[in-house]
Amino acid sequence: MGCGSCGTNKDGAPSGCQSHGNCASGGCNRMNVHDWLANLPFSDPESNCRIVEVSFNNGSRKDYFKNTTLHYYGSGEMIAVEGVNGFDVGMVNLTGELVRLQLKKNKIDEKSPEIKKVLRRATEQDISKMMESKAKEANMLIRSRAIARHLRLELKMAEVEIQADGRKATYFYIADDRVDFRELIKLYAGEFKVKVEMRQIGARQEAGKVGGIGSCGRELCCSTWLTDFKSVNTNAARYQNLSINQTKLSGQCGRLKCCLNYELDTYLDALQFFPNDADTLELARGRAFLIKKDIFKNLMWYTMADSNKHYPLSIESVKKIKSQNKQGIRPEELETVEVVSSKPKEVEPEYADLVGQISLKSLEKTTKKRRDKERGHQTRGPENNRGPQQQRPSQQNTANRGPQQQNPRPPQQGGGNRNNNNRGPQQQRPPQKPSNN
Fold first, then answer.
1. Quick one: 12 and 95 in the same domain?
2. What is the pLDDT of the chain when averaged over all its residues?
3. How far is CA 202 from CA 50, 146, 164, 175, in A?
4. Based on the domain organization, do 152 and 215 belong to the same domain?
């Protein structure tokens, strides 16, 4: 797939992205870098910064090159730069005065002769050759790991980066101790026919090269903008009242998250006003133990050994009780502070009939009727499954009779024949004599 906004072709090679600061071989998936010093006016044109920052291999590696040509290269353009016994192809990441600030930050002299030069704007042939070299990196990485495992070296091969012209390969590895890889370099050079360079990186740099999404929902800092990695320890979590949970505090690199240091200075400045020797307070009924410090409300929370209740105290109250303890006085109770939440109270939403005209009660009645009907069919026998006229013929016949048939005469008392009562209406009544008229 190509990038619609930067004009990448089907092969994934960018053809000059102006809207994105970082385009990779697979499209635009990096954060854009805004040059906020681009429109800065200068009286002397010679004082303009002629060094550009170029990113390689999907932004995992960045380097600086001197633009000695008369052309202007904007952010997102593919250019050819000097390499080791050849050339390399990268993408312009930063230009202008913003690069000068980056050089000052990284302590690089702008007039250093070690800075290589920009050759030209990358042609289609240069980009196609770069794509051919990049296609070999995956197989080369698998083979290099097998060779290192065969030599039983205690290292982990993280990434292989091949120069655009295919003359040099840089191997990034991770190792806890020093590794003697002289024999390994000979095998790599004979196997892949390239010049080999070994670079040791840390676990944080490996995570930056692999990339991913952090627990905050954004792209990893180490793969976007973070370049210098400072040491992070568990004291940073303790100062911020965070639970020491290794699973939550660790990043994708397996180390403590770098963002633990972002707000550490703010917490340290706020904790200067809290007393340091107030971990326990002596009371008449026992000791109160400190559980946390709230720098936003300037409160210190204590708990007693005989209860699970938490007592919020102000800084002045804690200092007062601490001074009383030094004099041998133990107060009876703690002077707690009423904590008022600034969050608005959530109102429970009212019930809304989303079903419409169909209510739940009508559905329950229909279900109950269907269930009773099914039970009735299961309990009846084969004879009881007849129609309504066949199930109860006697009742229907009696209902269709006349008034005399519905109320038959009572049986005769005495020794009469009982079968006479079962005769029809003509048999019960004797025939009338014919009249002479």
1. yes
2. 78
3. 32, 21, 25, 8
4. no
pLDDT tens by residue, 289-313? 999 899 988 999 999 988 888 999 9
Q: Record the tokens describing residue 264, joined without a space.
A: 């550490």
Residues 130-161 pLDDT 10s: 999 999 999 999 999 999 999 999 999 999 99
Whole-angstrom distance, CA of residue 120 vs CA of residue 115: 16
Q: How many domains does the chain have?
A: 4
Per-residue pLDDT, 16: 39
Is 415 a domain residue?
no
Query: From CA 83, how far away is CA 170, in angstroms rounded?
Result: 12
* Beta-sheet pairing, 287-294 with 280-282: antiparallel
Above 90 in pLDDT, residue 117?
yes
Cβ partners under 8 Å of residue 59, min gap 6: 22, 24, 30, 93, 223
In this structure, the answer to whether residues 11 and 89 fall within a common structural domain is: yes
Pairing of strands 195-200, 287-294: unpaired
- Kindly state whether residues 166 and 263 are assigned to the same domain: no
**Reported pTM:** 0.61
Compare 270 and 60 and report the one with higher pLDDT: 270
How far is residue 387's CA from residue 283's CA, in Å, rounded to a whole number? 90
The answer to whether residue 28 is domain-embedded is: yes
Answer whether 224's CB lies under 8 Å from 196's CB.
Answer: no
Residues 160 and 140 in one domain: yes
pLDDT band at residue 379 under the 50/70/90 scheme: low
Please tell me whether residues 112 and 159 are part of one structural domain.
Answer: no
The Cα 349–Cα 414 span in angstroms is 84
Q: What residue type is assigned to position 39 of the chain?
A: N
Specify if 157 maps to a domain.
yes
Q: Kindly state the tokens that stand for 170.
A: 């840089």
Domain endpoint, select from 270, 289, 311: 270
Question: What's the domain range around 256?
Answer: 208-270
Whether residue 144 sits in one domain with residue 29: no
